From TrEMBL:
Superkingdom of this protein's organism: Bacteria
Gene Ontology BP, a term: microcin transport
Keywords: Membrane, Transmembrane, Transmembrane helix
Transmembrane segments: 20-40
Protein name: Oligopeptide transport system permease protein OppC
Amino acid sequence: MGLVSLGELLAQGKNHLDAPHLVLSGFIALAVVLSLLIFIGEGLRNALDR
């Protein structure tokens, strides 16, 4: 069993648009990662501004 990458997940979603669960799983994973990066960046900015 190989490792799963975000790029592979998005590529599978793009190649199989007729399977909504693949598209949604890629979208949700990307949205979660981007949200976490935004929260971490805001936390660092607030910590360093003090």
